[in-house]
Structures are given as structure tokens and as C-alpha cells.
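Fig. S4 source data, part A: sequence.
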Amino acid sequence: MTEMTDNPLMAEATGQTAGKDTGERHHHGVSFGEAFKVWLRVAALSFGGPAGQIAVMHRIVVDEKRWIGEHRFLHALNYCMLLPGPEAQQLAIYIGWLMHRTLGGLVAGLLFVLPGFLSILCLSYIYAAYGSVGIVAGLFFGLKAAVLAVVVQAVIRIGSRALRNNIMLAIAAAAFIAIFFLHVPFPLIVLAAGFAGFLGGRFGLAAFSPGGGHKAGSGPVLSDADSALGEGIPAHARPDLGWSLRISAALLALWLVPVAAIYVSLGPGDVFSQIGLFFSQMAVVTFGGAYAVLAYVAQEAVQHFGWLKPGEMLDGLGMAETTPGPLIMVVQFVGFMGAYRNSGSLDPMFAATLAAILTTWVTFVPCFLWIFLGAPFIEKLRGNAALAGAMSAITAAVVGVILNLAIWFGVHTLFAEVAAVQLGGLRLDIPVLQSAVPAAMALSVAAAIAIFRFKTSVITTLLVCAISGMLWTLAVG
């Protein structure tokens, strides 16, 4: 007999509800304890920005654990791509919520952020105290080179399954051209693809239907019906306006009440007030991920607030790129250095630590709000033909965007310098060939051979490359 629990969140996660019929209990067979371990693993392997993180999550949750099917995974990803904030973390919240209700979403989302938060906090301590990260840079250098192979694997894996026909290929190509060459804002690309897909689905075009088209993905595709969760909508995932209002009010309070309290008690000129307000604003405009707002954040942090010195944003970006977790975690470094240099009567390191926590809090709490508020309605619309067409087209566009991220990541990994070149009305970031980093290229090639040819596990590949990066750094002094 299953023991009942007095903890309401745990009861919700496990499907146990005292005094209620257990007919609403999950039957996917995945215990909360097992899910906790899986989300820890996903978090620990979440290197390489959104492309690498989505790849890792897909490989573990869909291919290996078979929790949810391919269509459901892409449907959830498409919704997350429409939201402000880090889409990979929001996808983890979404899947965690589907599997184990509110507590599952909270745990999946928190664990996704925790390793990156702790890593960047430690590196920020070293950076503030010594101005460099020493041998630690070698470890992350090796990880960064290995993650490039994981990112390429993501493009191939998702692309082979999402680009089922020529229309989807054309949408992906158009999205890539728009964002890579024309620098069209990411939200416009998604909206245009979604509108085209909506019309295609509305008029019943086969190319826009889930599974429609002529091209089969590489390898077997897990259907929703064959997954642990099945193709139906769990009872807790059905729209409930009362629950939506309660969870939204709670999350809004968690997000904004601390910011308001700091502003009222310390005043608008205090660094903590500035950090709370500025990064709360960033949380609602970061459409398209961190890349869309990094330039603005750097400009404000250097020129307006004086939190960073010129060039230091790149140091923080390097930390975020080579540690697990969302790339937007770079804002934690910005907040840390801002309070470190404007600590007032507090110890600089203590003030910086508080600022890092505050920055992370106001950046990621809204992510839970977007998912818990909207996901039940998105799940209900999963079978809608017009919406399915829109989501299919968005998936294709996302492949083009991920390809753009993969190229960006690869260029900045394999070359030490990148130059902006104007070709007519286009601005392209071209790697400076003389700045090629042979060690990074060698590690990336070795990682690719290990993953694609010998099917070596990602964690083994990352570990070997990390050690190799450290040894290389020691050898070159």
C-alpha cells in the first residue's frame, strides 16, 4: 500500500491526495525521486547555451527515458520559444510540471539553474579577488570545445525530425537567413513562421500537420502514445482558472514584493534597488534568449550604472558560456560586480553575494510564472490543427535559429578574434583566421568523433575534454 504524505506539494507531485479518489493519480511509473535524479543530471550537463541544453534534454527525456513523445517535446519547446527568458529552463519547468505537477516543475526549473549559479558565483569570487580564473579557465576551455560537438548533434537530431518536407526546410532556411544575415529580431521570425503555419494548418495542408510530409527523421521517433506519459492530457494539466490565478498571484508576489521592499527601504539610488528594477525589466523583454539583450545589458552596466569596466562583460559571458545553465546567467556576474564596487557599508564580497542572489531571483522567478500560467492552455490546444500547423512551422524556424546559435558558438570557440564586416547592407561577424585556436579545434574534432563515431556518452566526453583543457592550459603556462 502507498503511504500517504502530509506535504501538499509532495502529494501533488506523486498524485496522492488525501480523502480523494486516486483515479487522477499519474500512471507513467516515474517516481518523483527518479525524476529528481534525472533533472540533476540534465542540469549538470546543460552546457553550450540553448542549443546544447535542448539537445541534452531531448536525448535524456525523450530518447533515453522515454517520458514524453517527440511531438509533445517539440510542442512544449515551441511555446517556450515564444516566451521571454531562457527557453531551455522553461522547457525543463514545463516537462517537470507535466510529469509531477507543480512541485515537479519547481524542482526541474530550480535544479536547471543551480549548477550555473554556484559555478558563476565561485568564478566571480575568483575574478573579483584576482582578476582571472587561472587554471579553472582551462577546465572550461575543454568543456567549451566538447560542447560544440553536442550543439552540432542538436542541430542534426532536431532538424532531421522537424524538417520533414521541403516547406519546413524552406522555413528553416528563411529563419536562418533572417537572423544570421539580416539580423531580424527573433520574435518577428517566430511570429512570421507561426502565422504561416497557422494558415497552413487552417487550410489542411499536409506539410503543416504533425508527422506530415515526405521525410522521415533519422532513427525511430518516439510517438506520444508510446511514451510513459502517453498522448492524453493529465488531469492536473487541464486548464483551471482558479489554480492559474492562485499560482500567478503567488509567483508575482515572490518576484515583485522583494523588489518593492528593497526600493522602498533603500531608495532608488541604491545599487540593490537598481539591480532589482533593471533585471526585472530584462526578465520581460528577453525574447529570443540572452543574445538579444546582452549588448543592451553591457551598455547599461558600463555606461549608465558603472557596474562593469569596458571589456568585463566578455569575461562574464565567457563564464556563462562555459558553465552549466542558461547563458542569461551572465547577468548574475553583472549584478555581483555592481554590488562589489558599490557595497556601501557592507563587506564587498557579502554585498556582491546578495546582489548575485537578487539578480538570479528576479531573472528566473518570472519563468515559472509564464509556464504555470500558460502551459495548461497550450496542452489543451495540442490537438488543434491550426495551432499544430503554427507550432510545426515554429519548430522549423527554431532549427534555423539553433543553427545560427551553433555557428555563433563555434566561431567564438574555435577563434580568439571575430571581426564585424560590412557587405553591402549586411553586417557579418567573420572569424579572424590568424586567431584560430588549434587546441580548441583538436578537442572539438575529438569530441565529435567520440560522440558520432564511437557513441561515447556526453558526460565521459565532457570529462575527458575538461581534463585535456586543464593540461593544455598548464602546458602553455
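Fig. S4 source data, part B ends here. The radius of gyration is 22 Å.
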